[in-house]
């Protein structure tokens, strides 16, 4: 009988469902990290919320038996996904169960901030009657800057419009059509900062959103802007926020999430114009019942039947197709991940073409796997299962083309991403029927293997690139593992894909970017 551990506070419905499905369950909310480490090897499944940190150490300790980690909620930043994937542990989440609740919390925080309700409540209970101290501001007619127009952001926009606010939104995935449908104005981040009276954040914490609201951003805001963060700590730089609150540039902040959680002695707590809650965004009876029920069902299905839903690191395919598709799946994911990481503007269309051996297989899971990887840099919630819906909601057209023609390779998968500004293709094949290789980027032939830490460079085909790049990396003690170059024509545009043994820190990236031959350099992780 499979055995599951619940190590965070989940609704009792989860325990009931596991038992009903014939799964042994230990319910130990608040289990200390050292005990989790000692005991995880005894379980097939681990059900969590945000408190349990599922680190590489925990996953390694569970390796061999731990088959699934189920997150009752959306964000999986407390789970080491690459380590789970390496250990063959499926990580599932419940992408929609707490969206309404979290959106309602953001609205509640905005109102609390506008009318200083927590401070007024404390003062009134203390017997003071400070009517003039607590002068508020109306929401009516104010501009709400929405950063991130996904599941939660869209609900917040809808509720704010009900309060007669004007909503301006920034999200690289927000198409003009979707913005029109939502009744929001699509703007750049700088426009949003300049116009918003209130700014509310609804993005995952990624390299692109970390410190999104920092000193520079606050300086671009209207004086007296108010900030609401019910997404993730780290999207707002807390030290910069404190300075901006002290100077009056920011009039107030309502924070549900913090750089370090649990947040016990955060310097922001000493400030009058801060409203704080202990990561309560998803904390309603309804949302907790939804996510507990969903995670328990999904984990039971996987442990008992092998069916996979809402997995973030595993494609959803039947047991029969799995072994045949697996190498192509890896290739499709690598092409998608490459395209997603190099794409910076709103995606209009994704096309996946198949040629040779792969064209004879069921290519649908490959399209979904590639598509999910394209969109992953922009959302924690996207996975192979929900990628088509996710794309449709964002106005991204997805096409699959299966060619019945001989080609240069035994198998070829070509992925094309069209954005508002350009169209970029990347193709790959399998060497020896199993080893994925990139063979073409933007029409330039290459032959590259994708490894954990990579640099992707677009450059002018001029002498000196290899020498300059080699010295910058060598000075930083970073070893080059492989180096692949390709060019459109002699002296024209060129690209380089370099595998390095360690991640490249920002100061070294700046030095690389300053090399005269380099147009753009990006780090990529696979
Ligand atoms: N406080 C809580 O308890 C709580 C509860 C649920 C979710 N969350 C957080 O809220 C986040 C959003 O949840 P969701 O369900 O709406 O996710 P979602 O994936 O549906 O939406 C996220 C949106 O952010 C956009 N985005 C990504 N990078 C961006 C950037 N640099 N600038 C602007 N937009 C960007 C994406 O395009 C996407 O549309 C989750 O990632 C999670 O971290 C917090
Ligand atoms: O479980 C929680 O309380 C928080 C959940 C929330 O942060 C999420 O990402 O779904």
Automatic annotation (TrEMBL):
Keywords, in A-Z order: Amino-acid biosynthesis, NAD, Oxidoreductase, Serine biosynthesis
* One GO molecular-function entry: phosphoglycerate dehydrogenase activity
Instruction: Cite the EC number.
Output: 1.1.1.95
* InterPro entries, per database record: ACT-like_dom_sf, ACT_dom, ASB_dom_sf, D-isomer_2_OHA_DH_cat_dom, D-isomer_DH_CS, D-isomer_DH_NAD-bd, NAD(P)-bd_dom_sf, PGDH
Concerning PANTHER family, the annotation shows: FORMATE DEHYDROGENASE 1 (PTHR42938), HYDROXYPYRUVATE REDUCTASE (PTHR42938:SF47)
Name the chain's protein: D-3-phosphoglycerate dehydrogenase
Which family does the similarity line name?
Belongs to the D-isomer specific 2-hydroxyacid dehydrogenase family.
Domain of life (superkingdom):
Bacteria
Q: What is the organism of origin for this protein?
A: Pacificispira spongiicola
**Which reaction does this enzyme catalyse, per its entry?**
(2R)-3-phosphoglycerate + NAD(+) = 3-phosphooxypyruvate + NADH + H(+); (R)-2-hydroxyglutarate + NAD(+) = 2-oxoglutarate + NADH + H(+)
Kindly indicate whether the keyword Oxidoreductase belongs to this entry.
yes
Alphabetical GO biological process terms = L-serine biosynthetic process
Domain named ACT: which ranges? 454-526
Pathway membership, UniProt: Amino-acid biosynthesis; L-serine biosynthesis; L-serine from 3-phospho-D-glycerate: step 1/3
Annotated function: Catalyzes the reversible oxidation of 3-phospho-D-glycerate to 3-phosphonooxypyruvate, the first step of the phosphorylated L-serine biosynthesis pathway. Also catalyzes the reversible oxidation of 2-hydroxyglutarate to 2-oxoglutarate.
